[in-house]
Amino acid sequence: MYLEKLNLKGRTAVVTGGGQGIGFACAQALGEAGAKVVVAELLADRVEAAVAQLRKLGIDASGERLDVTDSAAVEALAEKIESSGGAQILVNNAGVAKSDVRAEDTSDEHWRFHMSVNLDGVFWCCRAFGKRMLTRRRGAIVNIGSMSGFIVNKPQEQAFYNASKAGVHHLTRSLAAEWADRGVRVNAVAPTYIETPLTKFGMQDAEMAKVWIDMTPMGRVGQPEEIASVVLFLASDAASLMTGSIVLADGGYCCW
Ligand code: NDP
Prior knowledge:
The termini are far apart. Helix content is 44%, strand content 15%. The chain has 256 residues and is α/β, with parallel strands linked by helices. The protein is built from 8 helices and 7 strands, in the order βαβαβαβαβαβαααβ. It has helices at 21-32, 44-56, 71-82, 108-136, 159-179, 200-203, 206-214, 224-235; strands at 12-16, 36-41, 61-65, 89-92, 139-144, 184-191, 246-249. Helix 1 (21-32) crosses helix 8 (224-235), helix 3 (71-82) packs parallel to helix 4 and helix 4 runs parallel beside helix 5 (159-179). The chain has one domain (3-248): 3-Layer(aba) Sandwich (Rossmann fold), CATH 3.40.50.720. NADPH dihydro-nicotinamide-adenine-dinucleotide phosphate binds at residues 16-17, 19-23, 41-43, 46, 66-69, 93-97, 117, 121, 144, 146, 191, 193-194, 196-199. Residues 16-17, 19-23, 41-43, 46, 66-69, 93-97, 117, 121, 144, 146, 191, 193-194, 196-199 line the site of NADPH dihydro-nicotinamide-adenine-dinucleotide phosphate (NDP).
């Protein structure tokens, strides 16, 4: 009875930024659970490579080139997927972090870049896929937030990123409240540092990496699959009573 709740057979899951890192792991996790997976990613060659890798794992995967900051393109993709049955699961994972820039040195372009991918992009996708889920009265959305939406990271400065992720968390709660009685759940996962291309700049800097590890009760960073398993749970019927939750997966970072 319980394991069956994790079975996603017959559902279609869209994962933005699913070509690498956490997004790719999410696509694999949802695919292993039986979902048909659509990798929606910025770069065409990365889409192709990810889809090939997922298919090699026996997953029913397809790919679409998508820039989540382009609301018209997001709407067009949602409509295209609707014509073949629609998406029952959406993972808003695409995100950027060009960190280590002080607030007073942050240019308009740097601020807009982060807000536009990390917050606008999440909203465009929630709106486009969410309204179609509402029509069918069925859907689960999982946004990838960050522990940076709760705490201020050290030692790298990144006010633009932290603010964008706090926005993702409150957007998650707001949509959850609006859509809860119409069959669509909206939750978020807030990861600690995860070993992906996004955090390479810090992992390669011995001093910075030491601060990150020392500030984490578990004394280590996380791996993409440790976030993907939380996403799988939230996307599945095992989390049927959960909406508006921001689930920390942070190795205890926020305890201190
Ligand atoms: P990666 O950079 O490894 O992967 C993110 C993917 O999203 C990349 O392929 C990236 O392409 C793509 N992407 C970027 N912009 C867009 C866009 N406009 N439209 C579509 N796709 C886009 O990052 P992670 O896997 O580490 O991060 C995934 C998510 O998890 C992000 O939202 C991030 O903020 C969040 N997160 C990550 C943490 C970490 O420590 N790694 C911690 C907490 C949260 P490209 O490379 O070309 O930019």
